[in-house]
Structure prediction request, 254 residues.
Amino acid sequence: MNRQAQAVVLLLLGGAVLKASFTEMYLRYVKEGLRPFLIASAILLIVAAVMTLLHDLRPATRANRGEPDGDHHESHGDDHGHDHGGKGHHEPRVGWLLILPVLGLLLVAPPALGSYAADQAGTALGSQPLSDYPPLPDGDPVKLPVLDYASRAIFDKGASLGDRRVQLTGFVATGANGEPILARMILSCCAADGRPIKLGLAGEAPTGLAPDTWVEVVGRYSDKLGRDPVNDAEIPYLDVESWRQVEAPKQPYE
Prediction:
């Protein structure tokens, strides 16, 4: 792979990142607040690629016009040496493998982390610190992130939840005994550090749904606790009163 080919790959990579940044695709890789940094990085990649191409093509342009080139004699000697040596200098061909992730980003739209990732990792609640929680906002039911409900249920023992009805949205995953659980992935930065928040479902729990099906559940705090088979952390439960299937949200991560 010569310098021009490297610049083309860099240009494709910058273009792919820029395209993803201006669509909702980037939300499958990073948190929403990182969008400006993605755009800036993509622009820098594109500028670097264009400058590399212009720098490499400039001597060829001067030669085609018949303009003198200070390096002409030395280049001629190099070319002569190449003729006798049989081969010129090339970068390792393995560099072409860099184009695979570029094509994947341009042509493939992978789904967000879901039930498979949740099944392979322990619930993130095991590392959450104990803290005080503010009163719930107004509304019936109260719309809460899965992480907020689970933290209040585990570390506050449901004191800040009381008997209020809450509404949570997440995807269906499989629990330790094969029962459906509600899960949501949380990110610190990007999908590479994604961790699941798992929630057991009691009462009128959803049944007959395939993993990764998104649902909206309404219920109340339950003092029932389960154990995560992956890291043995506690999993809180929700006493479900009603549920309905919904479309996957624009922002799949919390």
Notes: Residues 69-88 have pLDDT under 50 and may be disordered. Residues 35-64 form the longest helix (30 residues). The first strand starts at residue 142 and ends at 143. The domain at 115-245 is CATH 2.40.50 (OB fold (Dihydrolipoamide Acetyltransferase, E2P)).
